[in-house]
Predict the 3D structure of the following.
Amino acid sequence: MASDLPPYYFRTRENGAFVFKVDTEDRMRRIEMDQIAVVNIRNGEVRPHGDRALSDQDVKAIRDWMETRSAALAAREVDDIRRTIDQVNQVAHWAQGKASDDELEAVTDDLLMAMHDLRGVLVRRKADRLLKARDKA
């Protein structure tokens, strides 16, 4: 098992990760994890932990992880939006056939405001894209 472990472990957090170097060479066959850096995905910052100097191999592993993680988060975000579309459709079905008057009264104003806000954002962004495409042509 110990020989199958990766050389680095990334403990993810909301905006990045703590990076640990994995050491399986302990005489007692214990797995040692030594924190080597803190990563911020949003701004691309990699801060060595304490007074540690990161090797080129460490930096490459961290940058590779950041690229992979950013792609995974972007894909997850699109998937979340697609699920939201499904949920909006389910809410429409619920409102049309299953919701009581009291249930509708409890959520209608909030739903209408959220949908109005979303519609405004989507229309503005669509117009911006159309204007940009027209200007390129």
